[in-house]
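Q: How do we represent a protein-ligand complex in a form that can be generated token by token?
A: Start from the inputs.
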Amino acid sequence: MTDPLPDLEGRAEIERLVNAFYERVRVDDRLGFIFDEVAAIDWSSHLPKMYAFWETVLFRSGGYTGNPLAAHAKLVPLTAMGRPQFDRWLELFRSTVDDLFAGEHAEHIKNCAADMANVIHSKINHIPDPRADPGNLTPEQKARYAAYRAVAEPSS
Ligand code: HEM
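Then emit the structure tokens for the protein with protoporphyrin IX containing FE bound:
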């Protein structure tokens, strides 16, 4: 029998998740070059930023300050940042979570990622998305938004 997967309990698990996720992103045909060639990011600063981001979203303790909308908006004139890219990002994120973790926080982080992908995609491309329209959010989504809105949308 295989051991049950652990849940995300804090910073250590978040670091494991983020590292594993970006290992997959970097070798992905649709996404890898956006990080390594288009944005040419410095992974040694991007990864800690993403640890802080997810720790802040999940546990309010990561100390993330930044502007995810602006970071992605600046990519729009440079490369395709449409639904296929966000769907692939989400597919990799969800499968990485599911391969490593299971439980309430694992479900929560996947739901947060999906909600934020919808918002970021809609706002940076100026495409109305009913899934990102505050009027259409389920009570469960509204509760999630209350937790991460200040993190994901600092300027609005
Ligand atoms: C098509 C999908 C996506 C691509 C190609 C992408 C790509 C990138 C790139 C290249 C950067 C670095 C920008 C820079 O430092 O110059 C970045 C930053 C970031 N991304 Fe994404 N991203 C995607 C989706 C998402 C989603 C769905 C989320 C949230 C759930 C997210 C969260 C973040 C955060 C928090 C940062 C750091 C922003 C900052 O404070 O500088 N990304 N992304």
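Residues 31, 34-35, 39, 41, 46, 49, 53, 66-68, 71-72, 75, 81, 85-86, 89, 113, 116-117, 120 surround protoporphyrin IX containing FE (CB under 6 Å). The chain has a mean pLDDT of 91.
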